[in-house]
Design brief:
single chain, globular, 3 domains, alpha/beta, Alpha-Beta Plaits, Molybdenum Cofactor Biosythetic Enzyme, Chain A, six-stranded mixed beta sheet, 15 helices, 17 strands, about 25% strand
């Protein structure tokens, strides 16, 4: 099945707004349907360009997801261009107009003429109510191609893709004659370089010929992608399950989860399973560890508190680092990290105290500990431990690697392997 993506908007071409929508759709299509999105195209808010792209897509695609340009302003041209490309007029959709009136009544605002424009759709198209916004989703069939038009606003895009586009695409895929069935799984690791991951699973390739082995880096995570094919869904699922069963033991030391599970969710699950809790003291990461952990639903069951202690005085006051340690060893040191972890644990009465301090850059650092150096420490039922790490790159990259190393300390402790 030939699937493509078209994104509209000058803001995407100028770089004012990054395209965060398309990767989500591509991922959903690949994971759930076993299909690849062949191409993603971006065009500006120019009638001729949008119309030309729609005509070309209709000639070569089975399905196209088009995002953006469905709003009320003069530069929202997608519905108009869709009608022109299909050779049909724009017409007012009664259902869409009713939804708009109800939405604006809910807001206590009048429905203006430019907002009513969002009820104009290509003749013969179908509209789908958008429960999280004003512009409806538009379904249009042109020849053998089905167009799915959705707003570009990320919240609206995500809802409509998840609840309206994906089920319809699944029906399209299910009707394909002689289709190849696919099953997909991502095995996620932390603390394992990509080259070593490749080497560890290399012995299993020959025995699993119906499975394609691939790799993806989301630094500092590395992922193994397994795509199985079969003449039926049962065959594909069985081939995938066999490959996963073979690879998992080889990755056991670094494997934390599969598919959409995040590392923070894996850490939180271990804390919840063991009935333990954590308090965090952070310096160079500026609360990133706490943010990652509290992004997990239900974090209040195991997350006690997080303190961002940048200044030395706050390290002393909030997490009880001694003035002597700061004077003799400095704020970025193994000794300070250990006292931060112990202080966080005792002050918050948590099972574990987690701490990180370092030089995120671009300034700072010493000859012994240059920019990019960080220390992560953990205090828990089994005692204390500290690790020194260093990351290359800009400030954001150093902070991310430091936060991950700290969470990895906690993860390994809660799974009984430090």
């Amino acid at each position: 099945m030939h699937i493509e993506v078209l994104c509209t908007g000058d803001e995407l071409l100028t770089g004012l707004i990054p395209d965060t929508n398309s990767p989500l759709f591509m991922d959903r299509v690949f994971r759930r349907l076993g299909q690849k999105v062949e191409r993603a195209t971006v065009v500006g808010d120019v009638r001729e360009d949008i119309t030309r792209e729609l005509r070309e897509l209709a000639g070569r695609c089975d399905a196209v997801l088009v995002s953006g340009g469905l709003g009320p302003t003069s530069d929202d041209l997608t519905a108009e261009c869709a009608a022109t490309a299909a050779g049909v007029p724009l017409v007012e959709d009664a259902h869409a107009l009713e939804w708009l009136r109800a939405r604006f009544a809910q807001y206590g605002r009048p429905l203006t003429a430019n907002n009513a424009k969002q009820a104009l759709v290509p003749a013969g198209a179908q509209t789908v109510r958008n429960p999280v916004g004003t512009a409806p989703m538009i379904l249009q069939r042109v020849g053998d191609c089905t167009f799915y038009f959705v707003p570009g606003v990320p919240r609206e895009y995500r809802h409509l893709v998840e609840h309206e586009v994906m089920p319809r695409l699944a029906e399209q895929v299910g009707r394909l004659p002689g289709r190849v069935f696919r099953a997909f799984r991502v095995l996620k690791t932390v603390g394992l370089p990509e080259s070593q991951l490749d080497a560890l699973v290399e012995p299993f390739r020959a025995a699993h010929s119906r499975v394609t082995f691939g790799f993806r880096t989301d630094a500092p995570e590395n992922h193994l992608k397994l795509l199985a094919e079969g003449a039926s869904q049962g065959e594909a699922d069985a081939a995938l399950a066999a490959a996963v069963a073979a690879c998992r033991p080889a990755l056991a030391e670094w494997f934390f989860g599969a598919d959409e599970l995040t590392f923070a969710e894996a850490v939180g699950a271990r804390l919840q399973e063991t009935g333990t809790s954590v308090a965090v003291a952070e310096s160079c990461t500026g609360g990133l560890c706490s943010e990652m952990l509290t992004r997990v639903p239900g974090a209040s069951l195991w997350f006690q508190a997080g303190a961002v202690v940048y200044q030395e005085s706050m390290k002393q006051q909030w997490v009880k680092v001694s003035a002597a340690t700061l004077a003799s060893r400095g704020a970025v040191s193994a000794e300070t990290a250990l006292e931060m972890a112990s202080g966080a644990r005792s002050e918050c009465r948590a099972s574990y105290g987690l701490a990180v301090t370092g030089y995120a850059g671009p300034a700072g650092g010493t000859e012994e500990d240059p920019v990019g150096t960080f220390y992560c420490a953990l205090a828990g039922p089994g005692g204390t431990q500290v690790q020194r790490g260093r990351a290359e790159g800009d400030r954001d990259r150093v902070r991310r690697f430091a936060a991950y190393r700290a969470l990895e300390l906690l993860w390994r402790a809660t799974r009984g392997s430090t």
